[in-house]
């Protein structure tokens, strides 16, 4: 078999990858009970596996997977929810959705696993490359903010204190008007 034929076979195999079906349910997206859905979790830790064998995704995870062409989201009436409609619903559910999504997408695209960090009092926790949740602890906690927003010194100190007390590094993900993200790592230093 020639090199060109092998490349064509790989392309055909990639096109035949199954798109996982999922249902938009309030503030979450629940996938079908399939091996492909569980593989999203096993390979890259998207969502959480439920007792039913389905995977529960956050709105951020679902939107990212929609953009990547890995899932198709349906509403309660079994009608497809396109990207625009999904984004509108997500923004209604989470007012800060877009700023959070810009940071989520940027970190995922850089090859890191990013999960929610509500129990730490932060938006996200991020694992170093090659580390999966459960294997080791997250390296950073991340707070996404728009470049035009302001933080008081008390808010800033509280965020830094949370990171320090959880033995994680603090990242501020600043989203600009072009949806680009710049990160600032903050940590305590003893002079």
Short précis:
The protein is of the alpha+beta class and 191 residues long. It has helices spanning 3-15, 35-44, 59-67, 83-93, 97-109, 153-165, and strands at residues 20-25, 28-31, 48-49, 55-58, 71-74, 80-81, 113-116, 124-127, 140-146, 169-175, 181-186.
Q: Any guess at the CATH architecture of the largest domain?
A: 3-Layer(aba) Sandwich
Distance between the termini: 65 Å
CATH topology label of the largest domain: MutS, DNA mismatch repair protein, domain I
* Strand fraction: 25-35%
Q: What average pLDDT do the residues reach?
A: 88
How many structural domains? 2
Overall outline: globular
Helix fraction by DSSP (H/I, runs of at least 4): 25-40%
Number of strands: 11
Q: Which CATH class of the largest domain applies here?
A: Alpha Beta
- Oligomeric category: single chain
Low-confidence stretches are: none
Strands side by side in the biggest sheet: 3-4-2-1-5-6
Q: Helical segment tally?
A: 6
What's the alpha carbon Rg, rounded to whole Å? 19 Å
Structure notes:
By secondary structure, this protein is α+β, with helices and mostly antiparallel strands. The protein has 2 domains: 3-93, 3-Layer(aba) Sandwich (MutS, DNA mismatch repair protein, domain I), CATH 3.40.1170; 97-186, 3-Layer(aba) Sandwich (Trna Endonuclease, Chain: A, domain 1). 36% of the residues lie in helices and 26% in strands. The chain has 6 helices and 11 strands. The strands form 2 sheets. It has a 6-stranded mixed sheet. α3 (59-67) runs antiparallel to α4 (83-93) and α3 (59-67) crosses α5 (97-109). The longest helix has 13 residues, at 3-15. The mean pLDDT is 88.
């Amino acid at each position: 078999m020639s090199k060109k034929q092998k490349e064509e076979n790989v392309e055909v195999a990639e096109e035949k990858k199954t798109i996982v079906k999922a249902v938009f349910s309030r503030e979450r997206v629940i996938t079908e009970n399939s091996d492909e859905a569980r593989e999203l979790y096993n390979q890259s830790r998207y969502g959480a596996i439920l007792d039913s064998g389905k995977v529960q995704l956050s709105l951020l995870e679902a939107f990212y997977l929609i953009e990547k062409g890995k899932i198709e989201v349906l509403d309660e009436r079994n009608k497809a929810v396109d990207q625009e409609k999904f984004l509108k619903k997500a923004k209604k559910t989470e007012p800060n959705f877009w700023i959070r999504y810009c940071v989520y997408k940027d970190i995922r695209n850089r090859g890191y696993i990013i999960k929610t960090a509500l129990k730490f009092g932060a938006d996200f926790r991020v694992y170093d490359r090659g580390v999966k949740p459960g294997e080791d602890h997250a390296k950073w906690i991340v707070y996404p903010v728009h470049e035009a927003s302001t933080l008081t010194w008390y808010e800033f100190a509280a965020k830094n204190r949370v990171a320090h007390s959880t033995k994680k590094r603090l990242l501020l993900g600043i989203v600009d008007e072009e949806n680009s993200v710049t990160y600032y790592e903050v940590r305590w230093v003893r002079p």
